[in-house]
Structure formats: structure tokens, C-alpha cells
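Support reply, case 0932

Customer input (verbatim):
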Amino acid sequence: MNYTCLYLILCILTGVLWMFNGFLCIVVGLFICLTCDVHAIWRNVLVLHFCKMRRRYKPKKLMDTNIFKVICLPTDVDIGLQITTGRLLRECGFGQTEFWVENFVHDALATLKGEIKVTAYHMTYEYPIKMFETFKIIAKIVYWDDTSCYMKQTVMRNLDKKECATILSIHRLTGVTTSQVLNVLGKDCVQSKQVLSNLVRKLQEINMDISKKL
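Our regenerated output:
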């Protein structure tokens, strides 16, 4: 069942409940949001449009750092009341969407009719994030080649400023090259190409090995 059908069913159910008892409708709605993670259906769309409005006042360049603020909800935790790896990666996905929109890469890809997809992750997890704790995901481009961009995301707890996790991801371009995207963004979007680090090189090797096996 796709998200559209699920949304329509929820709207119909809400309308029926509201006819009988408005308070019951509110309680059921909150229960569904907390247990079924319904907010994830429309959250990516909200992030996309919110960033398009915010960048009018605070435009960013490709090499600028992006900070995505998050709170750990009851639907994000495991039995130990700590955020799961899957949920953390999902929040990183939202942060990636915000990053590409705010520095106009999303618009450049639309102009060139290209796409960008995550093809590999490398994650190190050091400190736990517990339920209702707030944290931020700091994203930055650390390297790029002809076909891919390499993004580093640092997860930092707001309570004690500890770096809880580090995620390095490969974002592969399809239908376009990195040079074409940079030309659309303009020469002032980057200062200089970053040095290829050992971590990026290792991730490249892992990604190539996986591609060969597939």
C-alpha cells in the first residue's frame, strides 16, 4: 500500500471518529502518530519546501556546513530506549535532503535532468542517544570526483556536545557529471577540492568490491 492510499484511509477514519467524538479523534490521532510513525510520510516534503523558503534569506554554497536539528521520539528507540541505527540513518537522510536543497544542488540537478542517490554508507557509533534527547546532524562535503560526492555527517548530542556517531556516505550522480553541476552552481560555489582522505579511499574500495559482487 503506498503512502497516498494510507493517507486517504487515515483522513476517512479521522472524519468518521470526529463525527462521533472529537476528543476520541484527537487521542487516536496522537496514538497513531506516536506508534505508527505517520509523520515520516510527509516530513520529507515539509523539509524540502521549508528549505526552499529559508535559503532565500540564508543562501548557502556547496562547501558550507549544514546543521539539521533532531529530537529522538518514542518511535525511534529500541528496547533499551536508545535510538536505533535505522532511525539514525533515516534522520541523516532528511539532513541530506536539507543539505542538497539549501545549497541549490537539488535545483541544478532538476535543470540538468539528473539524479543523486546514496550508494554506500560507512558509520561509526560511539555514544547512545536516548529517548527525547535532542541532537544535531552536521553535514559537509569532504571530497568529490567525476561521478560522486562524499558527505560526512557528524551526530552531536546537544546535552554534552559529544560526537555520538559519524556517517560517511557516497552520493552518486546519474545522468550528469559533477563538473556539470558545479558549472550550473557557479565557480564561487567551491573554494578548492578537498584532499582524498584514507577514510574516503577505503569507502571507495568497499563500494567497488560490492559493485563487482553484484
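We compared this against your earlier run and they match. Two observations from our side: The first strand starts at residue 66 and ends at 71. The longest helix spans residues 3-20. Please reopen the case if you see a mismatch on your end.
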